[in-house]
Design a protein that fits this description.
With about 500 residues, the protein is an alpha/beta fold. It contains 17 helices and 18 strands. α2 (about 50-65) packs parallel to α3, α5 runs antiparallel to α12 and α8 packs across α9 (about 235-255).
Length: about 500
């Protein structure tokens, strides 16, 4: 997977000068040893923070060791001022955890009071307006710290990716899909850059690759990927040209950013001038870690990219599309299990889901566009989707979005794709999320989220929730379990 940060997590200890520094050193060494034992890669920072001069020394050591994510471990009470100053000078994602006491047999000279120290540290982080990650229960011994560091590695990867992301957009958001329209100013609050381009720019860069010798090589790669699903072999060189153009443009225009995502207009003029739909290429780039959201959906592309960072897997962007008919529900009760009918929905898009996530993927034409553009004709310019039933397994649905007041919010819910034939077209599957009906009504509808959702192909709710909070998103919604009412929900 390309286009994502390579994490190098440092572990540093702090020690208040009226506590034994050896207590912090010993506890830090135990954390490093536990991480090594469990194959969790971390880098030990030798400097222990007792004062401001240690901060200067530590920042230099962190720089030399190329650390991009930092675990600050309170081996004892710790000095709250230098601790928060270190985080500020570091500037990257920081997790605060504190040492649990070792033994009831050593609570005089061996007591560290880190439980208390974390309160002071948290208060001082607030004074500096810093937003560290603090786990749900941050007081841990060495063994228990390993899982927290594993989680933080993923969370900080999301944060770093977003803060170093550049969004490329081609084409204005179409009138029929104003639901994908959203203010761009909040992107800058998150650290995301954006470069908006016209459809003529897109046409120009694709035409420039007409004689690129790589076209045939990429076309062979596509044919091998599709196998028997390569139903339009005459089309794939044209698709290869389009893919090459997008990647070349991305590499030439990253500028000061490190990572990229696209949000491109895909109809109706696109098909007339490019001679195909972009869906399959969108799926291929997503599989490489470069999401391409349909319908110029900038926040959809951002949501997809965050899903990649959370899982290391290809994402999808799908419509939360239609209900599951009662007869399908009844005939599939074995596969559905304990889910209620309103826990289910069908996730669909034209054909942009990576082949690795689809059962028996096949290249098709886009049926909806064909009705509009080629009625009564053999498909031509509407070809280029990759379609099939989305594979069963765990998923998270996720969306980060700025509303009409330029305030950003997000939602996330864990669920699964069920092994049920969707009996329809496109990239499509039957999704199950506990209490989806209530979630749909009191979050998706009431908070005015668009119809697109990002699909992470494993349970990633923990990471996406925490990373959104670290990025400054105040309202991160989730599906409330039965018995836990939403603030607007009618209790009667």
């Amino acid at each position: 997977m390309q286009n994502i940060p390579q994490m190098k997590v440092g572990v540093i200890a702090v020690s208040r000068d009226c506590f034994p520094i050896e207590l912090s050193r010993k506890r830090r060494e135990k954390v490093i040893a536990a991480c090594s034992k469990n194959n969790v890669p971390v880098v030990e920072i030798d400097t222990i923070i007792e004062n401001e001069y240690d901060v200067v020394k530590a920042v230099e050591e962190i720089k030399n060791k190329e650390i991009n994510s930092l675990v600050i471990y309170l081996g004892n009470f710790g000095p709250e001022g230098p601790t928060s100053l270190l985080a500020q000078k570091f500037g990257g994602p920081v997790m605060l955890i504190a040492a649990a006491e070792d033994s009831g047999k050593d609570l005089i000279q061996g007591r560290g009071d880190a439980y208390c120290g974390l309160l002071s540290a948290s208060y001082n982080f607030g004074l500096r307006r810093l937003n560290p990650y603090i786990p749900e229960y941050p007081i841990v011994d060495a063994e228990d710290s390993v899982k927290l560091i594993e989680d933080f590695t993923i969370i900080s990867r999301i944060v770093l990716g977003v803060r170093n992301l550049k969004m490329f957009s081609f084409g204005p958001r179409p009138f029929d899909f104003l639901t994908c329209h959203a203010p761009i100013q909040p992107l800058f609050d998150l650290g995301v850059e954006i470069m908006e381009n016209s459809e003529l720019d897109l046409y120009d860069i694709v035409q420039a690759e007409k004689d690129n010798p790589q076209i045939k090589e990429i076309a062979k790669e596509m044919a091998a990927e599709l196998g028997r699903g390569n139903t339009y072999p005459d089309l794939i060189e044209k698709l290869a040209q389009y893919e090459i153009a997008l990647e070349k443009f991305m590499n030439a225009n990253l500028g000061a950013s490190q990572y990229a995502a696209f949000a491109n207009k895909c109809w109706p003029a696109f098909e007339k001038y490019f001679g195909h739909v972009p869906c399959y290429i969108n799926s291929r780039l997503a599989a490489k870690g470069i999401p391409v959201a349909c319908e110029s959906d900038i926040y959809g592309a951002l949501s997809e990219y965050m899903s990649i960072l959370a899982t290391g897997l290809p994402p999808a962007i799908l419509d939360i599309n239609n209900s599951v008919p009662k007869d399908m529900y009844e005939e599939s009760r074995k596969e559905i299990g304990n889910y209620k009918i309103d826990d289910l929905f069908m996730g669909f898009h034209c054909g942009n889901t990576s082949t690795a996530c689809v059962v028996q993927p096949i290249m098709q034409h886009q049926l909806i566009m064909h009705r509009l553009m080629e009625p009564g004709q053999e498909p031509n310019i509407t070809r280029g989707t990759v379609e099939g039933q989305i594979k069963a397994g765990p998923v998270s649905i996720f969306r980060i979005q700025a509303n009409s007041d330029a305030k950003i919010g997000a939602y996330v819910a864990n669920g699964e794709v069920l092994n049920i034939k969707p009996k329809s077209f496109g990239s499509i599957g039957v999704f199950a999320v506990k209490e989806m009906g209530r979630f749909y009504r009191h979050v998706l509808l009431e908070k005015r989220f668009p119809h697109h959702t990002s699909i992470a192909f494993k349970h990633a709710g923990k990471y996406l929730f925490a990373a959104s909070k670290m990025l400054g998103v105040k309202d991160v919604y989730f599906n409330h379990p039965e018995g836990m009412l939403y603030s607007s929900e009618n209790p009667f």
